[in-house]
Amino acid sequence: MPSLVGEIQERESKPSQGTKDASSSTPRGTPNSATGFPQAQHRSKSAFARAREARRNGPQKPDQIPVVEPSKGSPAAEPADVHMTAQPDAIEEQWRNDISNQNEKRVHLMSESEREREREDIIERFGPEILDLMQRIKRRRDAAVKSPSIEDNAPALFAAEPATEAPVNRSVSENIEVPKPRIIIPDDFTEPPLHTPQHHARPSSPLPPALRSAAGTPLPKAPGRKPRFSTEPSEVYVYESAPSSPKRQPLALLGAPDPDDPAPNQLTYRGPDIKDSATQDSVAMDLISPTDEPTQSYHTFPTPTTTEDQIEEGTPEDIRKRFFPNADSDNPSLEWIKGRDQHDGTPAESDSVTRGEQLARKSTRYDLNGQPIPESLRKTLPTHLGLHHHGEEHDEAGYTLEELLMLSRSTVPAQRASILGTLGKLLSNAASQSSGDDNPDDVENSRTKVLVIALEALAERGGALVRAVEVLWISTVDYARKRPSSSLDFTNIAPLSTLLRQLAVHLLPSAQELPPESLTQLLEFLIFLASSPAIDNPTPDEIGSEILHTRDLIPSILHTFVTSTSSDIPSWTSDSSSSSRSLAPNADAITLVDALAQTSRTNAKTIVENGIADTFMKFVVVLPSTLATDGTKDVDLAQELLARTLDLYATLGQYGMYAITATTAADAFAALGKYVLDLITPDLLDLKTQKNGWLVVTSYLKLVEVWTTCAIDPHKTTPPHEILWSQVVGWDWASQVFQVRQSLLELLGSDPDPQPEVGGGSRNIVMREVLAAVWHALSAWLEGSAVNSVKLGEFERHQFVEKMAIATARPVEDLILSQIAEEMNRSLESMRQKQFLGGQTLESLSSSGMALLSAMRLGLASLPPEPSPPSPPPYGPLSKSNFNTVLTLCNKLAENRIWDDLRSLPTSRIILLRPLSNLLAYATLAARRRGALELKDWLKLAFTSMTCLIEGDEELGSRVLEAITRSITKAAIGKLTLSGDKMVWSDVSPELWSQGGMQIILPFLQTALRRTRVTSQDGGGEDEEGGPGNDESPLEFIAPLVIGRNSIQEATTLRLPHSPTSFKGRSSTPRGSGHGLPLQRDWTFAPLDALLHSSTAPVFTILPSDWDHSEVDVVRATLLLTRILQDNMATKMTSGFASDVRAVPISREEVVFGCMKVFMLEHGQNSSSSFGNDSAIEVFRDAMVSQEMDRLLAPFRSLGRSANPPPASDGNFPPSLEKTALPYLGAATPFFQFYSDFLGLYDSISFGHPTFGSLLIPPLANTTYPMDYRKLLWGDYAHVLRHLSMEPADVIGSDPKDWLYPVESDGELIGMYVKALGNNRLRGFLRWVAVHHIASNIWPDLQEQQPPSFGVKAKAMDTEPTDLSQQSRLTRSRKLLQAVLGNSNLNGVKEVVLYYQPKPNTNPALAPPMCFEDDNTGSWKQQRLEWVLAWGGAGLGGRLQALLSV
């Protein structure tokens, strides 16, 4: 086994040159050169004595001036060992030179083939990039040899004495031979000026801390400087900025600079002349006084030869000569001092202009205020503005965005802070531009880049951190205010958890170094994260959860902006015991907590359980003053804090949480109610000082509404029984609300300065909000009384009527409502003229809609609950005339095309539309209860309002659906006259009404309002990707705009999704079940979807226990409701309203696909039905089912009759079954697969069912669908063609040209047509299609009629005819004609030969038999006969001559 420790060998010590005795000169601890061990030190000598002896015995300083003489030869001529001793770096250089010489000699001796082989060897080992690398290294080495720096030449100035010279004795008592140093001056040496910095300098060691600047950047140092002395007074100059010592006199008076030469004079070295070498040992250096004249001849170093007289001042060469005299003129590091012409060479003038124009167009340049610099000023602005730099376009003023982003990462903190400020101003200016500018994408990209820079700079300190926070605020909060439609995806910018942890550090009381303005900006940024609808990702729930669970973030915010001592911080997170600067309370901190509670029920529960909500109770207990004399800033702030606290409690109450506070703090809230009443004084009308007073009144009324709703069903609060209805009655909140209403209306009625125009001032807007809150609170009280009081709240309704009829209040209320309706009418008319909703118009409509919604809700709540019959007035706050006016406005609102864009509008617009959609629904319910509209007109309004509902309105939509199903009865349906004709409703199966009528499908329709998440059995989850074997579970439930007793338990969030994709059309967002709001036009087919997915549909888990119906019953009711919807939308309203509601008909493709679902109920079924009571027959064979499908398809069966198009904003025209089926099938299942199953089902069970067969024809259209559908039917299922014998009048379509053009060019498909025609299987419409495509591929006159429009459509589906040459087309036509003559019977040959069509781009298509008749000219027959005779001869021509003879 080898030894692990090698043999220890002692290194021989060599005495160093120039030393006599190591023991006498080495300090203690230094090893002896002879023994290797330290010498023993005797304690008899003190340290001072030993040091003195060492100085005496050590080498002495030279007592003679070194000899200065020019070099007689190159340094290479000196002995090698001397060089090794004097300059160790020369060893490595000599070693490199030797190796280089050997390599060059070896390469020189190689042959060309050997060199090529070696070159290939190197490339194979290191890759082809090695050649470029070696060339760059060689160029760099040659450049270093060509232009050595001063420090590289410095060793040549100080060389050791040659070894051959005799040593000089330094001391008589010492016999130490030391080589005498000499100063060797090369003949070609040129000394640089003292002030000239060397560009090429070796890297120096780090400076000590005392020599570093405060910013951490080393102070500038002139590399390679050597001490020199001046010989003339004018050669020394001190800048005025140099500080002088008052206690020290200067050695010499310094001369002023030469006015002709503003640069400081060079300092020259004064030494003896070379010729006076005999006395050189006794000559010393001294400093000449400026008053003395030199008396001897001095030798000075030669100065650089300049041609300043010939060089123009300010040119690049002048700059180089003055500041970089030792740098080459072609040094790449000095290219920045050259202009564009010298920098880029001397290109042609046109090329230079073109390049400049391209650069100008490519990038905008900005000044330091973030303003773009016009192109005409970029080259004319002076340089003292600080807008010129060393960028690519250094001769143009300003900075591009990319240059600013680069400078924001500078190593100089002050520069980073300055550039961050510029970026913030730049983005603020860009966001302030009109939203309709030409480059919104560029602004969004700039915003993202600036935001990334701001997030990176949050790690800074000092001024840079302040600037970073400001830029972060500008790029998020300020940008969203100026561009509400913008969007932001934080997941692609920065990890949210990391960002929040960094913000928590800056907000910690123990580490705060930000000013109050920056802390406020951070708080507003957090509010933006938690509440802005502009954030696509993460979701609101994820953002809120991250903020709440970030360590020390919420406690630090509460400590900084709400409480004054750390003891108030909740104990659910870590302590922060350090105190911080005292700031005034900020209501935005409560707004942040409110926004977090709105994100999800889970986050609201976290806020309640950890005591965050309790922190703000002190603002309720200690109420502000109400005296007018105390309307100070402190009172205003206290009222704002109180209002925000009440808003937070109302938000928690919408989840059924924190209602227990009404009991535990009953005295405080009783005092609050009195405080609100005391606020309503004439002084409250001054909004400048009492704006927050109005907020307190509105917030209190909202809280009363929410807690009253929670008390309606105490089992649904969290936890249960937090508040009871008996407590609400005992606290008498209703009387307080009535008193607030009375005081407000009296105050408005006595206003000496009324504003008749509601939209004319902010005061009326505030009044409108307060009155809306009053009406909502009273509505909640009446709705709760109908559930919990005796006789369904009859006493409370009578009490309400008495209070509302007070003479002093009612006229004012009517006037306000009429003014709101008038303003809404003006906004709708303005929108109708502009054809779009602007931001201000939509905000005004939303505000008016919320006020009218509250009045309509109160009027509906004042009626006895159903099933009581409709009752006459009172109408609540709405008089009869105002009620009819509002209905008219609802008709105008419903017909607006903005509802067609619900799936594409940004979330910020959707939020403003929620009050309008709720107004339509409540108006529909109220109109039915009042009997204000005929059934036909009411159904049209109801169907339209269903398509206007937004996600979150599911509970309200369920009420409208319940009203619709209750209205369609056997007695009512017999009176309907739809589509302008007296419809026959008597043949509706009596069994349908006996089974319950439309109530059969009500649970299916109500379930379809909610989206579902499909969860696979393995536990994974995918949104709306339905299929067999999956289990559907409900998605998050968004709380409604008007809180209900069911929503407080079911709501999982109060926020609409940040991403607008939730509202996009189902065609672009696949949904496996097709459920959810906004509804599709074919929403009435939703029960069929549930039947097709009966194993996973959630409706079957919530059906009532007494629900017992069959598939046939469900299908009957579904088809009947769809037919009522279809016919109703095609009629005009007859109730005398000024405008008609927007018609939302079901498109042809939606009806076709809905009928396909009826037949697909039999797909994959076993012998027994899933319902078990009607397995004897298929559903589609039921008489009523078949009859209703025929009636649904009847409007689309006549070719030549235009189909009802979808709304213009849909973008799905011409309609396609593939797009229509996408919401139901999902992205994973193509419609072609569905059609294949449908065709196979027809083949197996149809027995030639005519309606079943007619549904096979639409996907065969050439203009809309690829040829795969046609090959499937004409090829794989050619045997079913004999059953598809419908005539053109029975085909579901609008124009036969959809099947005739573009003409088929695929040889395989044309062969299928010929085969089917020859087998005599074709009848009716399909025979016409086959003859058309065969004849169009044979006869030249039909081939020339291909319209270009159909070619474009076909190209989009990859079915455009092949561009055949004339000869190939002739050959193909001959073979096809021969195939027809050989395979077809006489009738088939006759039809192909005599088939004729006019030009399709200008004339309608000729249907059989007109397409087989002469056009009265006979020219096309003669042309065809001549064509056949030309290539077929008399034999073939004779067979066709009888048919083609004129």
Question: Could you characterize the architecture of this molecule?
Answer:
- It is a single chain.
- This protein has 1446 residues and is mostly helical.
- Helix content is 48%, strand content 2%.
- It has a 3-stranded mixed β-sheet, with no helix packed on it. Strands 11-10-12 form a 3-stranded antiparallel β-sheet, with no helix packed on it. It has a two-stranded antiparallel sheet with strand order 3-4.
- It is flat.
- It starts with 21 loop residues before the first helix and ends with a helix.
Q: What is the total tally of β strands?
A: 12
Spatial strand arrangement across the major sheet: 1-5-2
Strand content: under 5%
Q: Which percent range fits the helix content? A: 40-55%
Low-confidence stretches: 1-5, 13-27, 71-86, 148-226, 235-257, 261-308, 343-361, 565-580, 756-760, 979-983, 1014-1034, 1060-1073, ...
Report on the biggest sheet.
3 strands, mixed
Number of helices: 55
Overall geometry: flat
Tell me, rounded to a whole number, the average pLDDT.
76
Radius of gyration: 47 Å
Amino- and carboxy-terminal Cα gap: 117 Å
What is the SS-derived class? mainly alpha
